[in-house]
Structure formats: structure tokens, C-alpha cells
Amino acid sequence: MTALFGFALVLSCSAHVFALKSHLFRQRVPGPADTDVDYKTYYFDQKIDHFGFLENGTFKQRYLVADKHWHKEGNPILFYTGNEGDITWFCNNTGFMWDVAEELGAMLVFAEHRYYGESMPFGAESYSDAKHLNYLSSEQALADFAVLIRYLKESPATNRSAVIAIGGSYGGMLAAWFRMKYPHVVAGALAASAPIWQFPGMVDCGVFYRIVTDDFSRGGKNCDANIRVSWKAIDKLSSTDEGLQWLSREFSLCAPLTKGFDLKSWLQETWVNLAMVDYPYKANFLQPLPAWPIKVVCENLRFSPEVPEQELLSGVAKAAKVYYNYTGEASCLNISQSATGNLGMMGWFYQACTEMVMPMCTDGVKDMFEPQEWNFQAFSDECFSMFGVRPRADWAAVMYGGKAIASHSNIIFSNGGLDPWSGGGVLQSPSESLVAVWIPEGAHHLDLRYNNEYDPKSVLDARQQEVAIIKQWIKQWAAHTQREL
Amino acid sequence: MTALFGFALVLSCSAHVFALKSHLFRQRVPGPADTDVDYKTYYFDQKIDHFGFLENGTFKQRYLVADKHWHKEGNPILFYTGNEGDITWFCNNTGFMWDVAEELGAMLVFAEHRYYGESMPFGAESYSDAKHLNYLSSEQALADFAVLIRYLKESPATNRSAVIAIGGSYGGMLAAWFRMKYPHVVAGALAASAPIWQFPGMVDCGVFYRIVTDDFSRGGKNCDANIRVSWKAIDKLSSTDEGLQWLSREFSLCAPLTKGFDLKSWLQETWVNLAMVDYPYKANFLQPLPAWPIKVVCENLRFSPEVPEQELLSGVAKAAKVYYNYTGEASCLNISQSATGNLGMMGWFYQACTEMVMPMCTDGVKDMFEPQEWNFQAFSDECFSMFGVRPRADWAAVMYGGKAIASHSNIIFSNGGLDPWSGGGVLQSPSESLVAVWIPEGAHHLDLRYNNEYDPKSVLDARQQEVAIIKQWIKQWAAHTQREL
């Protein structure tokens, strides 16, 4: 369980809305020995405000550099456009870059996004109020990246290097936007599982949860059907104290349940997370999980949806424990773990409440969730009460172009068929140099993970294609640079 | 005389630096019946801050619309990206748009730049301090344009219309940058006399004044040579009270001269302005002037540079009066006219003091001016004392790409051989769709002016080429839009 749910509790009337924002972006600091990546940590003095001159202060932006395979002047730089979390976590979870570094002779740079990890513009005050949060935006983050790269390229050893932006999820959106807005800085971008169209008016707000549902539908007989009927069953049981007690016991909750809503929000989030991390091998991204975790979850939900409520919910509880207690180490499950100490979540909430407005909705028919419409006004009101700011629904489209991106170049949009975020992704190549890569068996940015013996062929092919295209960009950059100098 | 000089006086140690910034951007509200343009005036509620969410206020952005020739749904929109001045003045001085509106069946829109004309984010307080000035930047202005166009295209009549950005001088820079940063909003940009490379490290800081000098060198025998020796002569005469009195009389100054520096700054500005408006016909852009005004000026400077100081400066005074009193209506010349009421100048100073850092220098050898090096630190210190902000020398390059613009598309960069700003312009086509247009006989954005019987063939050809390319962009846009819908 993460911080998010704490917020979901607070935001009772549409926990939903916030829950949705969080799935993509959950951060987790890796345990020791997650990988054996080897990098050096640096800090760069960034302007707090790139777009105004009144605030002339700076902050330390953290970035990580690995140059083990970078032996030659002008060799490329793979630049991870950090998203809403601790950059070391992204560094450890972007095995693709480590896997291809030698082949490309590339330097790896992982740049932390402002307001996350250690890169706090105002130290401990950064999240204190709307005034201090005012410099948290994708535009400021992209400017940070551009300024940092300018600095990194001041040396004769790097000043001709092609820089390739790489990112997953919101980091993938940043990678794509970085190439769109700063094509003089990056030769190309690999935008993995980047839902750049999950904005108002671009895609059906129901697509995200339909994909989650499809994953569970394929996960096993009756799996989605049983989840679909579970909500009413929870309502019924949680209407009495005895029912609440029974649910608390059955789900092994650390604290007794006081209302069914909390359990439902938590479960909804659980199913979404499972859809995102339905990887073909044992992995530890959001949680330690078995290979193809949805299949394992669904083994607990094969019975007929007609079974009595308690039998149904016993199955649901077992299913949830696959996600929360695969290791068997959890003595109880904690659905009220709060946001404290997890600035990443708070940052993403703020971003969702300003420019990252991503409508989501459910209808309970084409998806297995309780019906909930997208209600911008309610969302806006919550944002205002939480941060004192209101979201600007159209801004992302104005700034980043929405679907009209064909005049840009050199971006790979990779998406996985299992990933609910693919619903807001670019699935058809908009042009010859904007290439959509489809990984039918892929969950959330599977292609950015280390090679694994259980990888489906589709992701191996995708990575191969990505590397081939990146090599083209590097050549192209060299040719340009030659001409320009 | 304009506001600028008032500032030059204040900023004694490098009036020069500021003077340079102003030539491009002088504003002047047109007199009645300057032209017979017919437009409607509108006001659009713009966010004061597009890049932060703390400041959620709005202001009224003025824009002008002329749709006399726009008869058909989906027909194009020519959009003037307003620069640092009253938009009605640009509207009246961009005859090109009025001339081609019928042929293109185009709607004309002239959008005022924030902090100029009537488009004041904080009304009368807009210029009161650095806090209120904090939203004056090219990025905010471009976002204004993008948001305004989104609004203009909400109607079914316009939502498929290709929008072509057009601008001259700083407005041309904005047009080019607009296409670079918002290619989903504008199909292409005509950037006339846009010195997008007049930034640190991109061109020789001396090129601007060398071009001015070349213009005077071609203007008549001994013309540049006499101006070159005039500075020392002024120094000598102004070293005594009698000399100062003599100069004040000779130049018909409204107020007696107290130091030679003031006269020199004013003259330097005069020669620069003449180079900018050396048009082939009688015109009234910065001042009412005869055709080819530099030739007329130089008729007063044909004597040998060996003549005695007073004879020399008598000639210079006559030359200056061509610029300041061609109509004969001025009873005296006012070199201390202050900045009061001319917010345009103040705005441009602020922009120069923040992101529009344009190095200029003179050596007195390759140009006819007194040697002055580019001194960033001194400039920065003046900015700080004036506005409490410091310029960011590299920011424009980071943001807009400097010379590495080849991956963009659909921009025409037109420049005139007589225009000193051409030194910072794009003179060679960077790619097939980034087209440089050269007008050897052209001064500052001559191509954006009305057709005139005295126009040289080169500008007629340029306009024809520009229209042909704009037509291609419109077709291209229609094809794209068809595919996307």
C-alpha cells in the first residue's frame, strides 16, 4: 500500500479521481542489491524559475552518471528524463539503458525531476504551500533537462554527442515532449508507455479501466465477473458492524475497517496496479510478485459469480493477498498507510491538479468497476481545497499539441497491450520518424526493463527495433553536427 | 527622438548597450489616416501566468480582426505575432498582410504582445516593479498566442483553418519561435528581419554596426568617414562651455547641451535608425522621411574629413535634421525626450535585461562608431539596478535552439541587405522547408510593408516567393487536417 490511499481517504467524494492519477507514478525506493548498477551522483545548480526572472534562486538537481562504456569523444548520451520519484529508483528500474550502454558506447545520465527525490527547490519547504509548489511543472522540468544537458555538453568530449531522451510513463511523456520542444537538445526520444493522449477530449475516458478489465478477463475464468460483483457484496457486508469485522479479518487488515468505501478504493487500486505490472517473470516493481501475477490472482476467483457474498469476498481477499503478501512477510495489510514522507505522491497530485488533467471514468458494463463519471468540476474543487490551485483542462493540449504531433520527428512511442496506460498512448505511427511500437504481451513499459529469459518475443523485437532506430538518430545527429560546425 | 535616449542618459556607462536594444523595437502610434485599414478590436481573457498556477488572474489581451476577404469556412488565418508596441501600429505598418488578404481569402488577426499597448496584465501597475513585470517574456507571449488561436478556432468555421504566423523584427522572432514551439498551432511562419541569432556566441557582436556603416559608406562620398571623425570633434567642442553652446545652437536643440556624451548617443541612435528605415520611397515609419533617406543625409556630409571641427559638425547637424525635421515642422530637436508614457520602451528594456540578451560592439575601424566592447557584467549590473533582475545570457539559446534549428520546418526568414539586424538573421536556408529570402535593397522588414511603386524588384520577388510558400503551407495543413479528422 502506498501513500495514495491516504489521500483517497481524505478525498472521499472522488478518491477515484486521485487514485487514477497515482497508478502510473508510484514511487518506491529500491531495497539494497536490487541491481548492481554502478553510477556516480552529482548535483547541478538549477534556476528555480526558468520562466520568470524575479525568483533568481537555485536548487540542487540530482543526476546520476554511468560512463563505464563511454570511451570515445562524441559518443552518445542516453538521458533518462526523470519522472515523479526518486531518480535512483528509475535508474534501477530502467535496465534497458544498462543493457544497451555497451553496444552504443553510451554514457548514461539519469536526471531527477524537480520536487522529487532529493531535488527539492525549497528544501523541506518545497511542499509547504502553493507558493512553494509554483515551480513544479513539466515545462520547468524540461527546461531543467535542457539546461543540464547544455552544461554536460560544454566539454569538448561531449559537445558533439547525440543525446537520446529515454523515459517511461510520465517520464516517457517528458521524453517525447522534450524532443518536441527541444529538438536542438535531443536527437530523439524513446517514450515508453507514455500516455500523452490521456488528456481531455483526446481519448475515451473509459479506455483505461476497460484495459484493466480485459487483463483480468484473460486472467482466468470468471475473474473479471467476480470482481464486478464484489463491489455490491462489500457494500452489503459493510453495512453492518459484524460485516465490517468479518471483512477486516478476511482481508487481514492491520486496522479495523470503518467503511466499505475504503476497501473498495483500495481494491480498485490493487487491480489497476496488477494490470500495470503483469510482467512475464517474477519481479519487484511496485511489489514483489510472481510471474504473470494476474493469472495467479485469478486462480482465487474462478468460482461462479453466483456464490454467496462471503465466499466471493474470501476469494477476493486471497486474490488481493497475492499482490500484497506474495512473500508471506506481511503480518497484516494496511489500507490506511498515509502519504507522510512520500513527497512523490504529493507532487503528482499537485501536477494532476494543475496541468496533468487525465480524465478517467467507469461504467461497470464494459469494465468491472463501479460506474463513475468524469467530473471535472468536482476534481477542480478538490484541487482547490487541497492546494489552492485549479487544474487547467486544456493547457496540456495547447502546450504539447494533443493529437496534432505529425510535424515532429524522431520519437518512438512504445506501448504494451496489457498496460492500461496504452489507452492514452500513440499506437499508430504518426509519420515515418514518429514510430509506434506495439508489444502485445507487454505491461507498463516492459521494454525499459532488463532483458529477461522469460521476455516474450514481442518485447525482444521491440527493444531491437528501438536500438536500431536510436542508432539511426545518432548517425543523423553526427551528420547534422558535421554540417553545422 | 524617443524614450530610449532618456534611458541612455540614465545608464551613462553603457547607454550604448541599451541604445542597441531599442532600435529594432521603437514603437509609435500611427497618426490618423496613416492607412485605411479596417478592423474590429477585441479583448481576450488571458491567464497572467501560463507556467505557474499560483497566479490565476487574467488580463485583457487586445487583438484586431479583419475578415473582409474571409468568406469561406476553413480559409486561412494570417496571424501577426505582436511585438513590443501598440498593436494598432503594427497593424498599420504591415501592409503585406492587407495586400495579400484577398488573394489568400484570409482572415487577418493582429494579436497584441502582453505588457504593450493596451494589453497590461496589471493595468497601470504592470511596470511598477519586478514582481509585476515577472510575466513579461517571450514564452508567456507565445503561450498567449497559442491560447488565443485555440479560442479563435473553436468555431466550426475556423477549426480547420491553417494559421500562418507573421511578424517583423522581434515580432518575426516570435513568429519563427511560435512555429518551432507550437507547430500544431501554426502551419508556418514568415519571420521578417528577425535576428534570432543576435544572441551571445552566435554572431560577431560587431556585425550590426558594420552594416550601419556600410549603408552610410554607400550613401555618399566621405559619409561614413565624416561620421567616424565626428565623435572626437564633439568631444573637443563639448569640452568648453562655448563649444557646448555652439553645438546646442547648431543642432537646434530644445534644451542646452550639458555634455557631449548625450549628443553622441543621440547621433549614434540616429544613424542606426536611418539604416533601419532606408526605404526606397517616402515613408513614415520611425519618422517622416524622404525616399532613400541615407542618400539625402549623406548629401550633407560629402566634404573632406579634414575640414575644421565646426564645419564638420555643421554638416552632421544638417544630416541629423534630415531625420528629425524632414517635414520642417520641428522648431527644435529634443534629445532628452524622456521615457514617460512610452511603456513600450520600458518593456523592451526589461526583456533585454532578462532573456533578450543581444551583444553589440564597435571598434571604430570596421565601423564608424566609437570603440565599445560588449561588457556583459556591466550590462547585468545596470539591469539589476534598474529592474532588480539579471539577464540570463544563455537562456535564449537553450530555449530556442540557437543555430541548431534544422529539425524545424515551414519558416521563411527574410532579411534585407541594408538592415543592420540582418547580421543576426538566418541568411542561408537551413533546410528545404526553412527558407532564407534575401532582399539586397531591403531595409528593416521592407517585405512586410505595402506594395509601392518604388519597391525594388528584389522585394517584389520576395513577397511573391513568400506568398507561394504560404500557399503550400495552407495546402499541406489541409492535407494533414483531413488525415487527422
Number of strands of chain A: 10
What is the CATH architecture assignment of the largest domain in chain A? 3-Layer(aba) Sandwich
Mean pLDDT of chain A: 90
How far is the N terminus from the C terminus of chain A? 53 Å
Strand percentage of chain A lies at 5-15%
Assign the structural class of chain A, choosing from mainly alpha, mainly beta, alpha/beta, alpha+beta, or little secondary structure.
alpha/beta
Spatial strand order of the main sheet of chain A: 1-2-4-3-5-6-9-10
Protein chain pair with the most extensive contact, residues per chain: A-B, 49 and 49 residues
Quaternary organisation = homodimer
Order of helices and strands of chain A: HHEEEHHEHHEHEHHHHEEHHHHHEEH
Task: Write down the CATH topology of the largest domain in chain A.
Answer: Rossmann fold
- Quickly count the domains of chain A: 2
The CATH homologous superfamily of the largest domain in chain A: Alpha/Beta hydrolase fold, catalytic domain
* CATH top-level class of the largest domain in chain A: Alpha Beta
Shape of chain A: globular
Uncertain spans of chain A? 1-34, 338-343
As a percent range, the share of helical residues of chain A equals 40-55%
Major sheet summary line of chain A: 8 strands, mixed
What is the CA-atom radius of gyration of chain A, in angstroms? 22 Å
Figure out the total of helices of chain A: 17
